[in-house]
Amino acid sequence: MLEKSDRPWGRYEVFQEAANYKVKSIHVPPGKRLPYQRHSKRSEHWYIADGTGQVTLNGKVNRVSRPCYPKTGTW
Hints:
By secondary structure, this protein is mostly beta strands. It has 2 domains: 1-35, no CATH class; 37-75, no CATH class. The protein is 0% helix and 41% strand. It has strands at residues 3-7, 10-18, 21-27, 53-57, 60-64. The strands form 2 sheets. Strands 1-2-3 form a 3-stranded antiparallel beta sheet, with no helix packed on it. Strands 4-5 form a two-stranded antiparallel ribbon.
């Protein structure tokens, strides 16, 4: 593991990083949530390892339990 950080919403761990990608594990406990954000220069690939989640993309709320791929510029 390259980096580990505790946050108010949970924690993340960085496992691999290069100039054009980063591999993280993000742990969000029940009742917590990530901040609403947008990335103008990168897309993301999210894989729900355990349980289900709720994702808001461009104002639409979606329940997810499988991989999710927010594209560059998505809110």
